[in-house]
Amino acid sequence: MKIPNPTFWGFSSSSANILLLVFVVMNLPQNVSAGRFDGNETDRIALLEFKNQISSDPKGVLNSWNHSHHHCQWQGIRCDARHQMVIALNLPGASLSGSISPRTGNHSFLKFIHLEENQFHGGIPQEVGRLFRLRFLNLPNNTMNGEMPVNVSQCSKLRVISLNWNKLEGKNPSELGSLKKLEILYVGANNLTGKIPSTFGNLSSINALSFTFNNLKGNPPEEISFLTSLIFLAMGSNKLTGIARNHFSRKIPVSVTNCYNLEVIDLGNKKLEGGVPYDLRHLLNLRILSLQRNLLGGNSTKDWDFSYTFDKLQI
Predict the structure, then answer these.
(1) What sequence ranges are listed for the domain Leucine-rich repeat-containing N-terminal plant-type (predicted)?
(2) How many CB atoms lie under 10 A from the CB of residue 36?
(3) Is 264 helix (H, G, I), strand (E, B) or coil?
(4) What is the pLDDT of residues 88-99, one digit of tens each?
(5) Which of 25, 107, 123, 290 has the most other CB atoms within 10 Å of its CB?
(6) Per-residue DSSP letters for 183-209?
(7) pTM value?
(8) Which residues of 72-96 are buried (b: 16+ CB within 10 A; e: fewer)?
């Protein structure tokens, strides 16, 4: 089971449009030619070091990465025509094995990292924090381990962080709460522990949050109620508890009902008890609600006069 993608659910969100825009950008014709430019040596050396860290390339996608081709013509690389600087590292589903070179942090113009569905292992280099122009960090479906690098919080232009389905450990860095432009944060299906930081309530642009299939504990922060742009929230399959009248419990956190733009809520498999907050009726955009594999009782959704608006209801 994969963590839901906003485009899969048919959201009418800006994030879905952003992902589409990136797809278009990644498939634009390459206008840079070796005869026109001499090349940027820092970028070229960093890319060759990236290749050196690859232990297996069964599809031969890096065969073009040699001195007979300009590095802006190498497969998976996009450069801007004006400065001839690398702006995208785009090698999804390439079956590459290896680690990510720390020299990736030397690409001063890099905006897009798309390395999903490979077999990258090891930690995410702290040097990624030097990529001040980075917009997209996509590394899902790899075997990355270690802790999430705190330095990523220095990439103030980040809009998407997708690290789901890896083997990351440790806590969610509270420093990520400073990323005011972040719209999607997917860290599900890892081995993360600790609490969801209250600083995540500062993610004023966030549209989608997924923490599912980890080992998170404690109360979901009440600050989640500040996320008025949130349309997708998934916290199921953790050890989280809820907040009710300022004491520890296993109830659905009432603060969620303040996120009035929510379209999807996944709180399945959390051993929740008690009733379903009737205040969910205020979430007029809510289309998908998953509360399955809990111990809920009390009021029934059958009595809700708004339940007919759901596209999918799992209790």
Answers:
(1) 41-80
(2) 11
(3) strand
(4) 999 999 999 999
(5) 107
(6) -EEE--SSEEEEPPPGGGGG-TT--EE
(7) 0.74
(8) bebebbbbeeeebbbbbbbbeebeb
